[in-house]
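Quick one, T. Sequence first:
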Amino acid sequence: MQVAVSILHILFSISIIVIVLLQSGKQAGLSGSIAGGAETFFGKNKGRTIDALLSKYTAVAAIGFLITCVALQLILNSK
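Structure tokens:
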């Protein structure tokens, strides 16, 4: 049981790292501030963009990481 949870824990931690690195930064410099008005005007489909999808995946991976942390702690304390 401990081995399976540990493998899941490692997979969640690697997935969090990869997903966060794939996301674009919130500040894009001067060009981001100029284009920011256009983004809010044309941003009706913001929930369908890649950044929104990666944000959702980050949340799922973080919840999975938290659950495996708690599970590992319970497994190790029960011994």
